[in-house]
Every structure is written in C-alpha cells, then in structure tokens.
Amino acid sequence: MSVLVLVDHDRGTVTVETYEALNLARSVIAEGEPLEAALIGTGLRGLAADLGGRGVSKVHLVDDPILDDYGPEAWGEALAQLVVSSGPAVVIAPGTDRGNEVMAQMAARAELPLAVNVVAYDRAAGNLTRLRWGGSLLENAVLNSPLPFLTVAPHALDPVEPGSGESEAIEFSPLLDAGLARTKVVDRVTLSAGATLATAPVVVSGGRGVGGSEGFAVLEELASLLGGVVGCSRVVTNNGWRPHADQVGQTGTRVAPTLYMACGISGAIQHWVGCMAAKNIMAINIDPEAPMVSKADYAVIGDLHEVLPAVVAEIKRRQG
C-alpha cells in the first residue's frame, strides 16, 4: 500500500500547493509505507528528481498524446486508471482548481466520496478536519470510504521544502478514448506580466479608507518599491475604484504573501479569508478597534494618507 499524491503543474511548473499536499500526505503515511506521486503529462521525467528531494519514493509518469496539455476529463480518467493499477491506500491532491476538478472526475468514475479543503486527517479513525465557509469555520467529519480521496486546503499547511533524496520514475500508459480531449486547454491569454496577487511576496491592499481611485497612487508606489502588487477590498471594486482582478477576499483572490499590508481596510470576515494565509499582516487604520487591527501581526494606528507617504520617503532615503 502507499499514499498517492497528484502533482498539479502547468506545463511542467509545479504549484506550491502540491508541496503543501505532500505535507499532509507525509502525516498520514503508515510506517514503512512509500509516498508516491502521479505526474500527468508529456515530457515530465525531469520533475522526478525534485519530487524525490521532497520525500517521494516513486513517481508515476502518466503519459499519452491526449495529455500534452491539461484536460479535466482525460486527467481524471488517467488518474482513475493509475489508482486501479497501483492500489494506493489514500489519494491526495492540492485543493487548486485543477486538483479539485481532476479529483472530482476520478471520484465520480470510482463512485466514491471526495473530501475537499482538508487540513488534517486521521487515517486510522477516518476523522478529518477541513475548512468550510471560506475558511471561517473548521469542520470535524468522518470519511467513510474504502479508498479515501482528499484535497488539501490551499495555504493551510507549510510546503515541504526541498532536500536530498531520489525517486524511482515508472511509466504508466492509460487507455484513453479520443473523445476525452473534448475538454482541454488549447490556448492561453496572458493578462499581466510579472508578479500577480497570487504569487507576489508583498501585497499592499487598500479599502474604503483610501478614499477613491486617485488615492491608490501611493499604494502603487509603495508596492513597486517593495517588489509587490496592489490589492483591494470588495467595497473598492464595488465603487469602481479598482478592477475585480485586484480584489482580495472570499469572492476575489486568496493570497499568501510574505507581507500583506491592509491600508484602510476594516477587515470583514470575507476579506480576512482572502489574506489570512499571509505570513505577516500589517494593518494601517485610524480605528484601533477595527477587526483587521485586532487580527494583524503589526498595526499602525493613523491616517494612511500620512503614514504611507512617510514610509515611501523612508524607503527611498534608505535606497539612496
């Protein structure tokens, strides 16, 4: 028996959520049991070394011409066939769009339940804890299934760091009907270059307190100096000050930067869900009782229109 983890990747670039899923997988492995990975796509043998350095002992290279790019039906069927062939005890995937979609496809084919947004799993008892209501609630549940299928809540666990170790690469050729290619990525449009809300190490986010679209100029300047990007709250997009693509929150983007700066944001639960995975949160607000201030790691009680220009000036002074 083994624990099998689906690798989520975009044309060979592995997502950090995959390494977070490996963290959960390592916690449920029985003594002496191997950790294995399913790598779906073409020409991906080179990734086996990276996975070996993160504790994976065996990498299944699932290859077929239909799998040259992502398609949920083909990936789901390919993974289902691999599971039947390899016989794992547990199948885990990152809770990304791709991970959830592929696992749902596979679970439907296997006629077995799928538990999503899991943050802890007791394999012996079948007990699990998962995020609900956008991360504002922890649910304890029991998964009754002969073969547990789980996806891991993004940014709820630390990613497994690279280290030493080797993995055995084994080729697996599924039998896929050509009709499965009817849903498949055939083109991509780059909306923006460089760092995005989801990948930036620093996010400088503004709320109602910014006062209007022109007030974001100093946030843009600060974000540029820190190598980050600008985000915003829902009220900002509702007022038309920033596009929805900049929104952080339950109905926007969930971020996990090293530093999240909440400027003039009160901190409603929907916004907190979007930024709570940040390693450090700084709140700048005139209200010391604002929810964001009480939850932040650092807080500056003051007018952001005075605080941010002073921060920008000091950074420029130190940079010469």
Report the end-to-end length measured between terminal Cα atoms.
60 Å
**Continuous helix count:** 9
Radius of gyration: 22 Å
Order of helices and strands: EEEHEHEHEHEEEEEEHEHEHEHEH
Number of strands: 16
Classification by helices and strands = alpha/beta
**Percentage of residues assigned to helices:** 25-40%
Please state roughly what percent of the residues sit in beta strands, choosing from under 5%, 5-15%, 15-25%, 25-35%, 35-45% or over 45%.
15-25%
Characterize the main sheet: 9 strands, mixed
Q: What shape does the CA trace take?
A: elongated
Lateral arrangement of strands in the main beta sheet:
9-8-7-10-6-1-4-5-11
Mean pLDDT: 93
Low-confidence stretches: none
Structural commentary:
The chain is an alpha/beta fold and 320 residues long. The protein is built from nine helices and 16 strands. The strands form three sheets. The chain has a nine-stranded mixed beta sheet, sandwiched between helices. Strands 13-12-14-15-16 form a five-stranded parallel beta sheet. A two-stranded antiparallel ribbon has the order 2-3. The model has no long low-confidence stretch (mean pLDDT 93).
